[in-house]
């Protein structure tokens, strides 16, 4: 099956970028409820990809695991309604939702810049939705 250029994923460029991220041994100090630009990379199939030069997208930190690792949920600006998406409102000037089905563990070496911090009430609603997933 031949894919057009628009649907091609640049795994090679992401692999080079990922090597540089790995060599950068300085993680970021983070807290739950924070939203970070995170180099999530180019992923397989329908997994959420990052964009731009750093292959990044915003993620919400939902649970700290250690000083260097945490559980995050990627954000999307897609307006498609889905039971695994919870609206957050305006984040960085764009209406956003978290994609709970894309929850994952990341090393804080992937974090680039803190974007925002979620209100406690909104964060509580996200935690509830995550618990319902399991």
From TrEMBL:
Q: Which domain of life is it from?
A: Bacteria
Which GO biological process annotations does it have? mRNA catabolic process; rRNA catabolic process
Task: Give a GO molecular function annotation for the protein.
Answer: RNA endonuclease activity
One Pfam match, given by its short name, reads: PemK_toxin
Sequence intervals crossing the membrane: none
What Gene3D superfamilies does the record tag this protein with?
Answer: 2.30.30.110
The protein, known as:
Toxin-antitoxin system protein
- Origin organism is Candidatus Yanofskybacteria bacterium CG10_big_fil_rev_8_21_14_0_10_46_23
